[in-house]
Amino acid sequence: MRKIEHIGIAVKDLKTSNLLFEKLFGAPAYKEEEVESEGVKTSFFMNGPNKIELLEATHPDSPIAKFIEKKGEGIHHIAFDVEDIVAEIERLKNEGFTVLNETPKKGADNKLVAFLHPKGTNGVLVELCQEITN
């Protein structure tokens, strides 16, 4: 793992939260997109070298909707940039971590992603991210 790629924050209303974070950072989101496979709409903010992803559920049975129902709005995950996501998944499995999706899938912001179960990471959902290069 090379660096923290972003911090994901679950929100009830993306439009309202975008306005809040725009005031906080003094700049608008640089990107918004929907990830149908995850049932979310996302927006991304930069603050210096740091990236924040806001996530709003697009349907009531999405992972974000379930998270908010259980825990309320707040930090949902920490994402780490990796050079080779397949090798990193294998390494982490060998270290005893539970990988939620052993095959990387397309996520937001032009990334391949995989997640580690929070029960094995002190309650923190960990996302692995690799930039998709063509």
What does this structure look like?
The chain has an 8-stranded mixed β-sheet. The protein is globular and about 45 Å long. With 134 residues, the chain is α+β, with helices and mostly antiparallel strands. The chain has a single domain, classed as 2,3-Dihydroxybiphenyl 1,2-Dioxygenase, domain 1. It has helices at residues 14-25, 63-71, 85-94, and strands spanning 3-10, 31-35, 40-47, 50-57, 74-81, 105-106, 111-116, 125-131. The model has no long low-confidence stretch (mean pLDDT 95). The chain is built from 3 helices and 8 strands, in the order βαβββαβαβββ. Strand 7 and strand 8 (125-131) form a beta hairpin. This is VOC domain-containing protein. Residues 3-131 form the VOC domain. InterPro entries: Glyas_Bleomycin-R_OHBP_Dase (IPR029068), MeMalonyl-CoA_epimerase (IPR017515), MMCE/EMCE_epimerase (IPR051785), VOC_core (IPR037523).
Terminal Cα span: 21 Å
The overall average pLDDT, rounded, is 95
Strand element count: 8
Q: Give the number of helices.
A: 3
CATH superfamily, called what?
2,3-Dihydroxybiphenyl 1,2-Dioxygenase, domain 1
Contiguous low-pLDDT stretches (5 residues minimum) are none
CATH fold-type name: 2,3-Dihydroxybiphenyl 1,2-Dioxygenase, domain 1
GO biological process, one term: L-methylmalonyl-CoA metabolic process
Domain VOC: 3-131
GO molecular function: metal ion binding; methylmalonyl-CoA epimerase activity
InterPro entries: Glyas_Bleomycin-R_OHBP_Dase, MeMalonyl-CoA_epimerase, MMCE/EMCE_epimerase, VOC_core
